[in-house]
Amino acid sequence: MNSLSKFLLTAAAATGLAVGVHATPELVISDGTSTIYVLDNGAGDLASNAGQITWAGSIGVWSLNVSSGVTGGTIGAPSIDLSGQSTSTGAGKLDIYYLDNNFGPTDASFTASIGGTLLANSTLAYASALDATNNLLGPWSINPLTPWLNFSAKGAFSGASSSGVVNVGNPYSLVLYTELVHKGVGTSSYDALLETNVPDSATTSLLVGLGLVAVGAFAFRTRRARA
Question: Longest C-alpha distance within the chain, in Å?
């Protein structure tokens, strides 16, 4: 089982935090030994705007970590972003999650994208997940949303993956997850985004217009045939 599944399936029992529906975004930072939970406008949140969380501090071998989560878009077409810059004093792993809920209804596909800079001999994994029961903590392993993206080359990196069409009528929750592994001293950074793919208004209007033209043409031919 991957780290995302392990963490999200056990965190509720281990901490008693963030279970159920409370429509409050949450940022979670864990090095495998210690875990930090930051609620929107709660303790440790450096961002004053609703729907945005920023935390800065140290955890384990990670001497400085600045992480931000932002919720945008609409409830039917959400867009969520997770960014981080992490400096380590030695080898270690850092898991970061940004979670939010009460989205929907949605009938669209999603695209997960990420870009950044990776320290040499390090790895970064990125994934998103959806929970149709609207819980902030899983069971996420049942509903992976977009395929995993994995990076290991030093320097600049980028990538994207997409889901199929998701039709969820009831409220649902989303999570972005990154797993960063350093083998030594240095800094890595990234910006990850999950977007809902919805037709733009011009495309929608064109499709509706073409549909009306087709219906009108069919009706005209029918009237002529009857005459």
Answer: 86
